[in-house]
Amino acid sequence: MQKVLNGDRVQLKIVGTDRRGRPEGSIVEVVERANTYIIGRLLNENGVWIVVPEDKRIGQDILLAGSLGKAKSGQIVSVVLTEQPSRYSQPAGKIVEVLGDIDDPGMEIEIAVRKFGVPHVFSAVATKLAAKLSTEVLAADLADRVDLRDIPLVTIDGEDARDFDDAVYCEPVKIGRSNGFRLIVAIADVSHYVKPNDALDKDALERSTSVYFPRRVIPMLPEKLSNGLCSLNPDVDRLTLVCDLIVSASGEIKAYQFYPAVMHSAARFTYTEVAEILADTNGLAASQRQSLVPHLLSLDAVYRALLQARKARGAIDFETTETYIVCNPSGKIEKIIPRTRNDAHKIIEECMLGANVCAADLLQRHKHPGTYRIHAGPTEEKLNQLRTFLKQAGLFLGGGDTPSTADYAELMDKIKLRPDAALLQTMLLRSMQQAVYSPDNIGHFGLAYEAYAHFTSPIRRYPDLLTHRAIKAIIQGKRYEPKGIDASLLNTTLSTSTRRQQVKDKAQGKMKPEANLTIWDALGVHCSANERRADEASRDVEAWLKCYFMRDKLGEEFTGTISGVTTFGIFVQLDSLFIEGLVHITELGTDYFKYDEARHELRGERSGKRYQLTDRVLVQISRVDIDARKIDLRLVSELGAANSAKEAARRAGAKTPSGKSKINADKNKVLSVSDQTAKATKSGKYAEAAPVKARSPKSAPKAAKKKR
To answer: Which fold has domain 9-102?
Structure first.
């Protein structure tokens, strides 16, 4: 491994197998180098200047070639590699940028964007092109657009939101003799300003997504667009692409249509404000927005209808606790608190799901390629692990080798009152695959949709921008095909699970032949890879901040829950801080602990002690390693009474509430749509009812059975 760095592509020669039967190989040739720039800390060791990489996956220090310039020992620097590693020499490089001291405000973000290769500086051409754009909507921009400026569309976002890419409006309408709703979801028309292959588009494609850090965002588009022209700010005209839906009182989408429009946002609401108004329509908050209260009540009513349809279809309500970091002015963590979700969040989620489903249906109807958001069912390996685990708990997942979402939902309904519900839910979640972008629509298992696409966030997601272009082409009777894209510049990194699945698919002849791959396939892989890159960078910054926050808490004791079990120890999430640390296996005692993969537990051979997911423990902070982003814990004691009671209750099949609040993440929502039609109101003719179906279970579920 001396001749390579993390990410290098190599050719291997298989030389044998290890004691566990895994193939072993030796490097024959380095085919492609992955690292040009490396971020690290400048140190002097015995008179030799080196740069110690911040990325711990890079195991070799970089020898410094050339002068230090203004850099000082201990500072964070960026070096360009002038010499790649070989079997007989270390990698070498020159300092090209001095970032500063490790304790400087925002340094953790500067490190992360370079460590993970996140583009964070717009090209000069893109900056110049953005500067040329008008600061307001021009008269020429209004051609062939529906004028919705008399409709009181509003935006509903978090208190700290700076860009608003979606606005909503709802009013009651008649569908034949029945009551229903007209729901308008207006999305910023980014494609009007960002043209294919211009400088803005190239920079947006390179980034593929905005990256969110505590107190800072690396946007996909320049601020003039993301916070200006494409942000649906109140009291100004803005260009939008609209999904206009007719929804029945029972929550079925009867019809929809898409069209370009111009709108004038009537108000910028926060989730908290809307929740307060809905809770008390005669209160102070409602009195300040009196003219908009009826429309908010209509939005709440259509949400209730959509919620009714979702429950009828059996959506899964996973019980999770989301948190967010509160930082002080210097950018360091002040506290970590649970994120409270209210009905206003759910209103927006349901509206966005409806628009996304209709967008996917439109692509399907017109056989137009696009980047669907797909989510495959559980793999055979994960399914076997899950069934083995469930068997130990006396449970069974239906569906055979290909369980449906309804089978998962039925099981979730059975376990929600069990004392070990949190553990079982965690195992169900871990059995699922990661959602990705692809032109090959295989449906969305988690949402139980036959077709699903991202449409509602073109300011911060490139796949949404592609969907907008495809929809506009369909409206104009044309076909959009991405052209002029240099495929060699696209990110082709696959996740480990995807690579493994591809190997299996290739062996079974299921893999798509390379000759049949299109630019849409490449864009799907690129956007999925950059989404993972953004998530990794965000997690790295959060881990750094948490370590910095914990460094003055050495020796303090906290109660916590086991959140992960591995061969080398247990991960514990601390209750009051929502921070995770590792209790190494050597800290568990003098016993020999064996890892049981099926039960996700460590069990002592001599003592019989068991440490399993969701067990409660008391731990002490023993070590904080900011460089490695790790917090080491020492086990003080098991919270024996709680564990014993839980285990006894589990074996007896006792049912007690888990006590956690339910949070319905948008990935768990299900929206049903019928095949009926309805007449449009105000804006002309709607498309025939969208045949947007949930993925069908193998057999019709009983009335009490939940489907996802």
So the answer is: OB fold (Dihydrolipoamide Acetyltransferase, E2P) (2.40.50)
